[in-house]
């Protein structure tokens, strides 16, 4: 039997042996548990080479499947030739293929061939060029915050990593530990901030009745937030709804937030990808920077440069003064070092190469616009297809919403129906990734929506 | 601390009320933030870079240099990158990382023919180099064994303390280094293992202990493993130098293999930063040996739940390099040759440094330079001696007297020996 010195393992080792014994005994003997297992267990000895005391993690349960990534898992298992994956938010071409931008390929090739490229660790804060260029990209090269050296920027692992590092920093150094996130939001947001040490609350955002913004609800909820609370804002192309405030609404939000000293934490995962214009998609952010106030900004290059798996992003903190920015940066390093020491070099090098070369930058903006335009076209085509079918309901939100996702308004029964009958995969909240559509698959999707809406309520 | 924060906040609120919506004065919510202390290791290289002296020597940070003092990209890495570039898309990896990279990493650590791999008993995820692997494990330990501590050797890589602290796992230390002999304090080590409560978690350096370069012998590892069995301790191995220590990856994994033979269900952090020169790519692996396949699936799923709110999924480029090299017999053979080359150069520099010091007529024993193994040599120098080395001789190392042998070359070894000799000569 396993060593008697084992604390806590004895009962579970016994349990395992009992289970084993029960399976080995003829079925008639299985009903008599106690006496049988005791005697049988005595005759079953742990071999010396067997994992003797059972694992300290023996009682651990399997975690549930990630709701978003689980969609692709299910899609991959489906043998139907008609299947369409509208789950995860990665861009697809008209042919349904992932896309590596031409300008990215060129930048990569340049890096590989460059004998003087960095071969070792980046600093904790990442690639300095990349950081400066990223701040310029989102805040604008002429931004007073940048001119005045008030921005602390650190390279992080895409949007997720930037949010986590920012959240950890706030949990340690900011006087308010509550963050308000929009209802709904990207599924990973609450987990990121909770693990960072913040308390998560929500503010009203999406109005199912209009499939648009619940602006009154948003203003009410932010008004009743405690002074100084942190507020998560999607800079553009809200995920999952695709519903963005207008510029006027943004201005009202800004005024309210500044009057209550609410701290803005922007998540920018789609700059350039939403409207096709980098500057237009940054307007909400720049509005807040322009009033001289402080904010946090999590930037991702996953979608707008197609760098998904390279994990490229940046966290910027716009501070009240240059002196504060220096100290803030030093504290950000203390968050990063025990997490992963320093960020991965490859993706950030690609981004820096592109952003610092004006010809490559221009080429990028063209390819980016191409992606955004294709998505906008998919929206129009889907809307038209539903109109043609006279599908009941108002589907104008498809063309009003912006960015990669459409919140269709379909309920989970309808979503399940579409998966079973039409092999269409989306998250159960009815969110579809427009990037997964093409002229070829739109009729199929329109048929499926039509069927779901008419057959199920 | 809380008081001053609250006071700062009140002051800031007052300032903010004066002109809440207009662009105006630079009040800050973060005005109270203190400047953080510089990282002791990375700060050394910063200071080195700033030094204009032509004689300067950097034996600070642990990154390999060739005999010209230049950083190296291995040929096998160059070739792997040539094959990858232009041919792969950059889609997200799964949360747990590259399956292929994980498979190859497990073969390296547990053995090509490991029964544990065949039985699918190892829960493993791709991690952000060694740091990321340790951090995932520390967070996992906190979540599932919230009452556990971690025993960390004295001394250890400074960041180990930061990692388990940020994971909120309480730390204790165990005896390791013996300053008088500049070797292992084996009896102290065994005492601490015996005196720790049953079922304690221990952090062990699999080979090439950082910063001392002092490793237990094979016999000593066997005794440690036996005592771990008696006490039912959990061994967590940090293996950052497999192949880099002796030149032979199988030999460098000996401690791990001994523990596996003895039936321990280990945890292991692997890094490719040094042995493949992939530093900035952040390529590594965390593995935990479980009771059975079902448990391994459960444990892996939980590790993924820790990774998802930290960075979602790990970076693809470094993983592709690792799996391309280890998955191709020719490239793997090339890698083995190159990693041996690096290890041999360092072993050669150890000999040369020792010989130079002995030639200078140093009265002290410098045996420890060649007894120790891996990238680092714990010279035994005091912080004051190190400061002198830096200020007078422009030689940069961490103040604990740790010398990165990778920074030693045939061109600077005599200079280095002379400087060390001078610093010791004065303090008698």
From TrEMBL, chain A:
Note from the entry: In eukaryotes there are cytoplasmic, mitochondrial and chloroplastic isozymes.
Coiled-coil ranges (or none): none
Catalytic reaction list: L-aspartate + 2-oxoglutarate = oxaloacetate + L-glutamate
Keyword annotations of the record: Aminotransferase, Pyridoxal phosphate, Transferase
Enzyme Commission code(s) on record: 2.6.1.1
Alphabetical list of Pfam families matching this protein: Aminotran_1_2 (PF00155)
The protein's required cofactors: pyridoxal 5'-phosphate
InterPro entries: Aminotransferase_I/II_large, Asp_trans, NHTrfase_class1_PyrdxlP-BS, PyrdxlP-dep_Trfase, PyrdxlP-dep_Trfase_major, PyrdxlP-dep_Trfase_small
GO cellular component terms, semicolon-separated: mitochondrion
Statement: the UniProt record of this protein carries the keyword Transferase: yes
Gene Ontology molecular function, alphabetical: L-aspartate:2-oxoglutarate aminotransferase activity; pyridoxal phosphate binding
Top-rank lineage group of the source organism: Eukaryota
Subunit structure: Homodimer.
Protein known as: Aspartate aminotransferase
One GO BP: amino acid metabolic process
TrEMBL record, chain B:
Top-rank EC class of the record's enzyme: transferase
Cofactor: pyridoxal 5'-phosphate
Signal peptide limits: none
Keywords attached to this entry: Aminotransferase, Pyridoxal phosphate, Transferase
An annotated GO BP: amino acid metabolic process
GO molecular function: L-aspartate:2-oxoglutarate aminotransferase activity; pyridoxal phosphate binding
Pfam families: Aminotran_1_2
One GO cellular component, as annotated: mitochondrion
EC number, UniProt record: 2.6.1.1
Domain Aminotransferase class I/classII large: 55-420
UniProt catalytic activity: L-aspartate + 2-oxoglutarate = oxaloacetate + L-glutamate
Superkingdom of the organism of origin: Eukaryota
Extra remark: In eukaryotes there are cytoplasmic, mitochondrial and chloroplastic isozymes.
Family stated for the protein in its record: Belongs to the class-I pyridoxal-phosphate-dependent aminotransferase family.
Subunit note: Homodimer.
The name this protein goes by in its record: Aspartate aminotransferase
Originating species: Leersia perrieri
């Amino acid at each position: 039997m396993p060593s008697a010195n084992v604390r806590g393992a004895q009962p579970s080792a016994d349990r395992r042996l009992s289970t084993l014994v029960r399976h080995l005994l003829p079925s008639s003997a299985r009903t008599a548990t106690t006496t049988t297992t005791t005697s049988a267990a005595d005759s079953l000895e742990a071999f010396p080479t067997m994992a003797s005391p059972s694992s300290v993690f023996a009682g651990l349960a399997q975690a549930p499947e990630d709701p978003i990534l689980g969609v692709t898992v299910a899609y991959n298992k489906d043998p139907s030739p008609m299947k369409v994956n509208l789950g995860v938010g990665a861009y697809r071409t008209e042919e349904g293929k992932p896309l590596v931008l031409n300008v990215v390929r060129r930048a990569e090739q340049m890096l590989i061939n460059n004998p003087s490229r960095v071969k070792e660790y980046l600093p904790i804060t990442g690639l300095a060029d990349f950081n400066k260029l990223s701040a310029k990209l989102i805040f604008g090269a002429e931004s007073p915050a940048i001119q005045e050296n008030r921005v602390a920027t650190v390279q992080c692992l895409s949007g997720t990593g930037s949010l986590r590092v920012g959240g950890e920093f706030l949990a340690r150094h900011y006087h308010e530990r509550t963050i308000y996130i929009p209802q709904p939001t990207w599924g990973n947001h609450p987990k990121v901030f909770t693990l960072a040490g913040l308390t998560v609350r929500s503010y009203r955002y999406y109005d199912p009745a209009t499939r648009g913004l619940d602006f009154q609800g948003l203003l009410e909820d932010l008004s009743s937030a405690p002074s100084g609370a942190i507020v998560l804002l999607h800079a553009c192309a809200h995920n999952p709804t695709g519903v963005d405030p207008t510029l006027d609404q943004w201005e009202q939000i800004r005024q309210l937030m500044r009057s209550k000293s609410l701290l803005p934490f922007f998540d920018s995962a789609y700059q350039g990808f939403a409207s096709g214009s980098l500057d237009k998609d940054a307007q909400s952010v720049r509005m807040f920077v322009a009033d001289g106030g402080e904010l946090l900004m999590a930037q991702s290059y996953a979608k707008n440069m197609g760098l998904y798996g390279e994990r490229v992003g940046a966290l910027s903190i716009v501070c009240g003064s240059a002196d504060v920015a220096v100290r803030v940066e030093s504290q950000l390093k203390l968050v990063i070092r025990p997490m992963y020491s320093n960020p991965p070099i490859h993706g950030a090098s690609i981004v820096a190469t592109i952003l610092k070369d004006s010809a490559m930058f221009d080429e990028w903006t063209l390819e980016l616009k191409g992606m955004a335009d294709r998505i906008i076209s998919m929206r129009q085509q889907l809307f038209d297809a539903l109109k043609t079918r006279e599908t009941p309901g108002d589907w104008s939100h498809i063309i009003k919403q912006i960015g990669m996702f459409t919140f269709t308004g379909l309920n989970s029964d309808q979503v399940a129906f579409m998966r079973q009958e039409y092999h269409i995969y989306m998250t159960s909240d009815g969110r579809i990734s427009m990037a997964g559509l093409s002229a070829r698959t739109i009729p199929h999707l329109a048929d499926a929506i039509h069927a779901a809406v008419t057959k199920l309520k | 601390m809380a008081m001053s924060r609250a006071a700062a906040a009140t002051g800031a609120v007052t300032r903010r009320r004066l002109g809440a919506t207009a662009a105006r004065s630079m009040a800050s919510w973060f005005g109270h933030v203190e400047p953080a202390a510089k990282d002791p290791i990375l700060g050394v290289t910063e200071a080195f870079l700033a030094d204009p002296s032509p004689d300067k020597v950097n034996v600070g940070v642990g990154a390999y240099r060739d005999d010209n003092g230049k950083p190296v990209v291995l040929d096998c890495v160059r070739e792997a990158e040539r094959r990858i570039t232009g041919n792969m898309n950059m889609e997200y990896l799964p949360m747990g990382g590259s399956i292929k990279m994980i498979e190859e990493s497990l073969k390296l650590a547990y053995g090509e023919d490991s029964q544990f791999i065949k039985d699918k008993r190892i829960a493993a995820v791709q991690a952000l180099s060694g740091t990321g692997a340790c951090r995932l494990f520390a967070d996992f330990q906190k979540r599932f064994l919230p009452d556990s501590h971690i025993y960390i050797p004295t001394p250890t890589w400074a960041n180990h303390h930061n990692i388990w602290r940020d994971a909120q796992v309480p730390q204790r230390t165990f005896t390791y280094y013996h300053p008088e002999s500049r070797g292992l304090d084996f009896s102290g080590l065994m005492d601490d293992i015996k005196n720790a409560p049953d079922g304690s978690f221990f952090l062990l350096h699999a080979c090439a202990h950082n910063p001392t370069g002092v490793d237990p012998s094979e016999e000593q590892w066997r005794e440690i493993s036996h005592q771990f069995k008696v006490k039912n301790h959990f061994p967590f191995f940090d293996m950052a130098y497999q192949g880099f220590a002796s030149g032979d990856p199988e030999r460098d994994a000996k401690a791990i293999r001994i523990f596996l033979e003895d039936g321990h269900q280990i945890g292991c952090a692997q890094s490719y930063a040094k042995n493949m020169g992939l530093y900035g790519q952040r390529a590594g692996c965390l593995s935990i040996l479980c009771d059975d396949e079902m448990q391994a699936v459960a444990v892996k799923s939980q590790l993924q739940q820790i990774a998802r709110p930290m960075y979602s999924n790990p970076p693809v480029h470094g993983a592709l390099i690792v799996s391309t090299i280890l998955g191709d017999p020719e490239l793997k053979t090339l890698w083995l040759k190159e990693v041996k080359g690096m290890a041999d150069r360092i072993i050669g520099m150890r000999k040369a440094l020792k010989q130079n010091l002995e030639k200078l007529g140093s009265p002290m024993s410098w045996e420890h330079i060649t007894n120790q193994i891996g990238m680092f040599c714990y010279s035994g120098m005091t912080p004051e001696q190190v400061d002198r080395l830096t200020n007078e001789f422009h030689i940069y190392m961490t103040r604990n007297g740790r010398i990165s042998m990778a920074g030693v070359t045939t061109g600077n070894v005599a200079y280095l020996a002379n400087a060390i000799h001078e610093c010791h000569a004065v303090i008698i």
